[in-house]
Amino acid sequence: MVISLCTLSFYFYLKYNNGDQPVEGLGWLPLTSLIIFVFAYSMGLGPIAYLLLGELVPPQVKGLSKVL
Fold this sequence. Notes:
The protein has 68 residues and is an all-alpha fold. The chain has one domain (2-67). The protein contains four helices and no strands. α1 packs antiparallel against α2 (29-43). The chain is elongated and about 55 Å long. The chain starts with a helix and ends with a helix.
């Protein structure tokens, strides 16, 4: 995940130094970096927080929490 965010920041660094013009030949880099980040997040410990939320809510209010 860190590598994908570093490459994304490197792209925007190059874009900033190029006068806010798109970097030639690297137009694919931001999308690829974000896809790798989302994939790594979903394969790692990221979804565990969403699983725990269902277990932390008391049974009396689970119906209300699904509506909100």
